[in-house]
């Protein structure tokens, strides 16, 4: 019983970490995204979401 719960919790934690990483990378300026090869393309719409990360605080 607990093995299933542990497996579920582990998967949930990995998915959350992946989403947080994607949000952080998406909030980087386009020039840096291009340099590191993160989903960059010239026609990609800008990521103008309200959850921008203040990189000066990190």
Please give a structural write-up.
This protein is mainly α. The relative contact order is 0.12. The protein has a domain at 1-37. The mean pLDDT is 79. The protein is built from 2 helices and no strands.
Summary of the model, kept short:
The chain has 58 residues and is mainly α. 55% of the residues lie in helices and 0% in strands.
The dominant shape is rod-shaped
Approximate strand percentage = under 5%
* Total number of beta strands: 0
Distance from N terminus to C terminus (CA atoms, Å) equals 40 Å
Order of helices and strands: HH
Mean pLDDT: 79
How much helical structure, as a percent, in the residues?
A: 55-70%
Structural class estimated from helices and strands: mainly alpha
List low-confidence stretches.
Answer: none
Determine the number of helices (DSSP H or I, runs of at least 4 residues): 2
Oligomer designation: single chain
> How many whole angstroms does the radius of gyration measure?
16 Å
Main beta sheet: strand number and arrangement? Answer: none
